[in-house]
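Input record, target 12 of the design panel.
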């Protein structure tokens, strides 16, 4: 990414939405609370520290 021969943890976080979006199925409760797959992924990624 960005012309490098390697990826960084931030690169992984940047791609997470596109890679994971279709893999998450919302429960009826989550849909009722108007949660989105993007908001769930963003919440998870915000908890993962980038060294």
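The sequence produced for target 12 reads:
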């Amino acid at each position: 990414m960005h012309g490098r021969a390697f990826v960084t943890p931030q690169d992984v976080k940047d791609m997470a939405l596109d890679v994971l979006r279709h893999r998450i199925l919302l429960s009826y409760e989550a849909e009722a609370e108007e949660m989105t797959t993007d908001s769930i992924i963003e919440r998870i990624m915000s908890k993962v520290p980038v060294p």
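The first helix runs from residue 9 to 20.
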